[in-house]
Design goal:
Blueprint: E1 4-10, E2 27-28, E3 31-32, H1 33-42, E4 47-54, E5 73-76, H2 83-94, E6 101-104, H3 114-124, E7 131-136, E8 141-145, E9 149-154, E10 160-169, H4 170-179, H5 186-191, E11 198-201, H6 212-226
Parallel strand pairs: 1-4, 1-6, 4-5, 7-11
Antiparallel strand pairs: 2-3, 6-10, 7-10, 8-9
Helix pairs in contact: 2-4
The chain binds cytidine-5'-triphosphate and magnesium ion.
Cytidine-5'-triphosphate binds at residues 9-17, 23-24, 53, 79-83, 86, 106-108, 208, 210.
């Protein structure tokens, strides 16, 4: 049976958040944002090790006490300039068996639930290609033209929003990322090989904290979960 690992790219700067501190370290429900995703991944019994890919010049990680996660949590200071580079560098540093599964999850998705994580693993563990958590697009989509005016309405049928974790065999993902550095998620790199990752239906609660107003929403969700 192949093993499961998680890899959390956390080497971004959070430019859309507009804060001095990289967003993965912003305070969220009494912890740095990244804590929440790491706690969820570390609590999953199928996952052996949770790797965190940090910027080589990260100055924040060591300010916090991570000892409660023990050896299950392993920081790697090898992040790159692009998300795909951070993931690729992390995979190379982790030196995993090619047929092991790796679940790549954004540090900026603190509200991933155990149920969503378990569904992803159970739906994909026997899959040939792997896949991702995703949501069918709910809103009507508009194409913008000059002056922020609507050019037209796009057909949303069959469109999904990609989330993370994205789960692939380590060997396949390494091969895919070596050939496609400029992708915004792992699935896009695998698609570029001509493969078709599976869409595993998720929930909107697993959203990515991107803008300042997202912090409050994430805190509300995390707070209500504990009650
Ligand atoms: N990430 C990374 N290395 C990069 C860029 C991003 O590891 N060079 C990580 C981020 O830290 C985050 C995840 O990829 O956990 C998703 O990226 P995103 O939400 O876009 O975060 P940032 O790139 O930090 O934010 P922004 O795009 O607003 O600058
Ligand atoms: Mg980014």
């Amino acid at each position: 049976m192949s093993e499961f690992f998680a890899l959390v790219p956390a080497a971004g700067s959070g430019s859309r958040m507009g804060s001095g501190l990289p967003k993965q370290y912003l305070a969220l429900a009494g912890q740095p944002m990244i804590y929440h995703a790491l706690a969820t991944l570390c609590a999953n019994v199928d996952i052996s090790i949770v790797f965190v890919v940090l910027a080589p010049d990260d100055e924040q990680w060591h300010r916090y006490d991570w000892s409660r996660f023990g050896d299950k949590l392993q920081p790697l200071f090898c992040g790159g300039a692009l998300r795909a580079e951070s993931v690729l560098n992390g995979l190379m540093a982790a030196e995993l068996e090619p047929d092991s599964w790796v679940l790549v999850h954004d540090a900026a998705r603190p509200c991933l639930s155990q149920a969503q994580l378990a569904r992803l693993i159970s739906e994909l563990r026997d899959d040939e290609v792997g896949g991702i958590l995703a949501m069918p697009v709910a809103d009507t989509l508009k194409r913008a033209a000059a002056g922020q005016r609507i050019a037209r309405t796009e057909n949303r049928e069959g469109l999904w929003q990609a989330q993370t974790p994205q789960m692939f065999r380590t060997g396949l993902l390494l091969q895919a990322l070596q050939g496609a550095r400029n992708v915004t998620d792992e699935a896009a790199a695998v698609e570029a090989l001509g493969l078709h990752p599976k869409l595993v239906e998720s929930e909107s609660t697993n959203f990515k904290v991107t803008y300042p107003q997202d912090i409050r929403l994430a805190e509300l969700l995390l707070g209500s979960e504990k009650k």
